[in-house]
Amino acid sequence: MRTIYNKRAKMQRAELDGGTQIQFLYKCITNGGYVSFNKVNAETNQLESLFFAHPVSIQLCKMFSCVFLLDCTYKTNRYKLPLLCIVGVTSTNRSFYAAFVFMSNEVETSYAWALECFRTILDQKKLPCVLVTDREIALMNAIAVVFPGAKNILCKFHISRNILAHCKKEFKNGKEWEKFNGKWQQLVDSPRESDFYQTFLEMKTEYEIAYPQVYSYVVTTWITPYKEYFVAAWVDMHLHLGNSTTNRVEGSHSQLKKFLEVSIGNLATIWQTFDQMINLQHTEIKRSFGQSTIQTNRVFSSTLYSDLLGYISITALEYIKKEELRARTGHGSFEGCTHKIKYTLGLPCAHDLLSYIRNNNTFPLWMIHDHWKQLTLREIKEEQDIKEENEADSKIDVEIEGILRRYNNTSDLQKQEIKRKLRELMDPSSTQTLAPSLPTRTKGRPKGSYKKFTSDFKSTKRDPSLFEHVLKSEQLSLKMRPMRTTKKEAISEKRFLKVVQKEMPAYIRDYISDVVDVLGDGHCGYRVISNGMEMGDDWLQVRNDLSRELQQKDILYDAIFGTTRRIELQNSLDCTTTPAPLDKWMTMPDMGLIIASCYNIAVVHFSMFQSFTFLPLHSPPPAVRRTLFMGFIHGNHFVQLKIKDDCPLPPTFSIWRRYHEEIAEQW
Predict the structure, then answer these.
(1) How big is the CA angle at 8 (ends 6 and 11), to the nearest 5 degrees?
(2) Which of 237, 204, 467, 479 minimizes the C-alpha distance to 338?
(3) In angstroms, how far is CA 483 from the centroid of its own chain?
(4) H or E element in which residue 280 lies
(5) Per its UniProt record, what InterPro entries does this chain match (predicted)?
(6) Mind listing the pLDDT tens digit for each residue in 621-650?
(7) Is 209 left (phi over 0), alpha (psi -120 to 50) or beta?
(8) Contact (Cβ atoms closer than 8 angstroms) between residue 83 and residue 73
(9) Quick one: which H or E segment has residue 638?
C-alpha cells in the first residue's frame, strides 16, 4: 500500500512540473476553457475565494435561466473552505452544475461577490426568475441586492425539519405531534391566501394557549417574516418548475462527494474530480435531449400532442398528460383551479386543454413555455445588433492605453508589479498566489480517543443537523425497543422473532438472529431504510432521496419500468402525512433497484411470495460494502432483519443484469 501511495505522490509532483498547486489549478482551469474569478488576500497573497464554471455549464445557464438552487456544502477540501454549489434545471428535468464557488466564509459580502460572478456568465436579458435556498440570511440578503427581480423561495423540507427539531419535544405524545404537523403541512400547502388565513386562524385557536412555545416559534420564526417565501399561496405564483425545496442541490452534493471520496484533497485535485463529474453530467444531459427529440410513446399518440412531439421534452409531455387525464375525468368543472401548473411550470392546466380535447384539436406549441423547448446544445444564434454590441464590449483598446499611461508614469518597482500582473493575465499558471492556509491543528491526541485522527477526519459526510439529533435522542430514550402499532402486537422480542421467521422462506429462518420492527403507519418500508442507513427515523428524507433518484435517472427507469409506471412510482413517494394512504406504500420488487442505486448498497428482500437481491445500477461498490436485509410479513408490513454470516442469498433481480451500467459490474 505504501508503494502505491509513493507512486501516486510521484505522479502528482510530475504533473506540477515544479510549480505550485495554485499554478497547476489555474493552468487546468484555463486549458479547460472555464470562466473563473478569484479573490486574493492583499496582505498574505493567499487565495480567499474562487469561482469557476464549465463552458458547457455556462451555455446551459443561458438556455435554462429560469430557476437556480443554491446551497453550501462542507468537508470537501483540506482548507475547510465552504463550497457554494449553484445548480440549474434542464428541460428534461436534469440537474446541472451551473457554477462552484469556494469561499473563505459565509458572510453577506462573500455571497454577494459569488453572486456577482455568477451574474456575469448569464444572459443579462434572461436573469433568473426564482432562486431556491435555505434560510441563510446572508445569502438571502445578497440575492436581494444582486438579483432584485428574482423570487427567493425557501426550502419547505428544511423548514419542516426545523419545526420537528424545535416543536416535537413540546408535545405530550406522538398523536398530538402528528396532529399539529398535519395542520402545519396544511398551512404550508394552502393554495390561496384565504385558505392560508383560515388554516392559520384554526391553528391559533387550537395551539396559542395549549402550546404557547410552539405557537410563538412558528409565528415569530417562520410565518410572520417568511410566509411569502414558502407558503404555496405565494410561492406557486412564480415559475419555479416544481422546485420548492433544495433537495435537487442536496442530491448534487451527495453525487459530488461520491466522486471526491475524501475531504483532504487540495484545490487542484478537487478541480480534476469536478471536471470529470461535470463532463459525465453533460453527457447524460445530451443523451436526455436526444431521447426527447427522437423517442415516440404510445401514451402521447393522440391528436392533442401532434405539434408537440419532438419539440418539447418528455418531462413536459408527462405533465401535460396528467392534466389531460384531469380534464377527461373532471366533467368540465374547474372553477376552483388555481392555475398552479400554468404559473409554476409554464404548461397548460386541465381546463386549458378541455376545448382541444373535445374538438380533437392539436394543442399549439406557442402556449408552452420556452424552457421546455430547449433540446439541443447548439450555439444560440444572436441578432446582428447584439453581436455588434458584444464586439464593442470585447474591444480593449481603451484599457490598453490606460495601462500604458499608468506604466509610463510609475516608479521602477511599480512597473515590476504591473508587469507581474500582466504576465499572470497572459499565463494564469505563472501566478504567485498562495494556497489558503490550512486549519490549525491542536497538538496531541483528541481527549478521550485512542487515535490522533479518527476515520471522520477524511470523511466527506456532513455533520448531523439538529433534527437528526432530536430523532436520535428519541431512539436512545426508547433504547431501540421494537415499536408496535397496537397493544395486541406488543409481544416479546423472542416471540416476535419466531413470528417473523415463520413468515420467511424456510432456507433462511435459522439465519435470522434478530428483527428490528418499525411503526406500521404506511411508511414502514421507508422507516426500515432510514433505520438501516443510520438516519434515525427520518422516513421523509428517504422518500425524498428515492424521488430524486427517479428524477435524475429518469431515462434509465423509463427503460426499465416504462414512463407510466415510473411516474406512478414517483407519485407514490410524494407523501408527508401519516398514516400514509395505501397508494403511497412501498411496493416490491419495483423499489428494490431504486433503493440500492440511491444509497449504493445491496438490498436483500425476503418474503414468502418472492425474494430477491437488488444491486446498484450505476455506481461501483464502495470501499466498505453495506447490505440491508428487509423482510415482508403479514402481507402489509416491512421489518429489518439481522442476518448471520454465510446466509444463502436469493437470486439477483434479473432486470439488474440487463440494465446495469458497466461501472456497476464490480458488484
Answers:
(1) 110
(2) 237
(3) 31
(4) helix 267-294
(5) MULE_transposase_dom, Zinc_finger_SWIM
(6) 877 788 999 999 888 889 999 888 888 889
(7) alpha
(8) yes
(9) strand 637-643
